[in-house]
Amino acid sequence: MPHPLPDKVYSTAQIRTLDACLIAAGTPGIELMQSAADAVWLAITQRWPNAQRMSVLCGGGNNAGDGYLLALLAKLAGWQVQVFTLADPVTLRGDAATAHRRAQEQGVSMQPWDAQAELFGVIVDALLGTGLRGEVRAEYQQAIKAINAAVGPVVAVDLPSGLDADRGVVLGCAVVAELTVTFIALKLGLLTGVGPDYVGELEFAPLASSVQHAPAAAFERLSLDGWAGTLPPRKKAAHKGHFGHLLLVGGGHGMGGAIMLAAEAAMHSGAGKISVATRAEYVGPLLSRCPELMVHAINDTEQLRPLLEQADAVVIGPGLGRDQWARSLLHAVLTWNGPRVLDADALNLIAEHDVLPRLGEDAVISPHPAEAARLLSSSNDGVQADRPAALQRLVTALGCAVILKGAGSLVASEDATLAAVCSDGNPGMAVGGMGDVLSGLLGALLAQRVPAAKAARYGVLVHALAGDAAAAKGEVGMRASDMFVPIRQYLNQREG
Description:
Largest sheet: 12 strands, mixed
Number of strands: 19
CATH superfamily of the largest domain: Ribokinase
Low-confidence stretches: none
Distance between the termini: 21 Å
Number of helices: 17
Strand order of the largest sheet: 8-1-10-19-18-17-16-15-14-11-12-13
């Protein structure tokens, strides 16, 4: 059985320290290398037991050593194996050289890489490991393109060659794997940015039972473990006031659907009372759809202030727009002192400020990359080129909990020592309204007195898991409203 993915995620520098700690504790490097090869071989034989043929492409580092030992395992099992070398084996050092010698002594077929070579069977990428820093060199790009053009299943050793292990970006070109077996620790680049599109199925092999004096992790991977007390069981004598009064502000002309989705998501997420401040044209449709809501036609901030005075938490942004009505309502919410969620056009309007406001530790923002780019005076590509750095810049600038949405959403705040990454979720969620649903969920958590930093992490996780549950019927054609029922189910789970 594959190992479950761990809850800690490390940088490449930290993984080098972990590796050194394992060796210092008495595990020889060649033994770790053999364990890595064993793990990949097991994963391959479980998925393609009848393949009987393998092509392994090896570079010049420890990643290549894993590849040589894997090729040896396949040959000893009677498979037809060919190894293509992109680095002269005489340049190998240490454990990688030992691995090459063992494979050579057992007669594993090896030859220098040739662009005309035919790749057959299971194709193994053992070219470049976590040490890659600059763009992939031309000869390696040629081999990567050949791997991606081949017919057989592709397996990446530790991570797909050409993928930045820390940022989840492609360094020129990268292997598109069907399966990646990663070792010792999870790397952030496997989980965020474009990383998941290159990783395929991800399997983890620890190689050792524990690491003494391990460095602190860079990120935590969100999972359901440890959230059982976030929304404790409700007492029999409870009333709606115990679960907070949430106010949602939004729904400018032509954008009523966004505030409806956010409000209905909040209903399914446990807020005791929910008010909506919106344009007059949406009062009837909202009450018709959800008679449980208290819906108010708001023309100006004077009408909004009494609602703010009654609220325990506020969500502003879904369908807000950017006209004067939107600006005045945002100003009122920014001057209100309490837990807030700001999303969508609320963020776009804030981005117009000469100096970004300090929102405080009770606030959560949830920008997608384009909104984050506006806040940082950057570009969408600039944000995606280094998502961890963009996340920290937003936390520093705004002083609140930040959710940087996208594949492998990232979460951080000033009052939490460890940022988080979400490995759940799916492409079916890439439809209009999903962000509005997240805003409603977050607002309901804040209304129920969940601290903002905790609500951001828990909300992202529940939203992603609900998306995966909704995708059970297929990713194509998912709707944001499909999320309501599974969100409620996850929030009511008491174990984990």
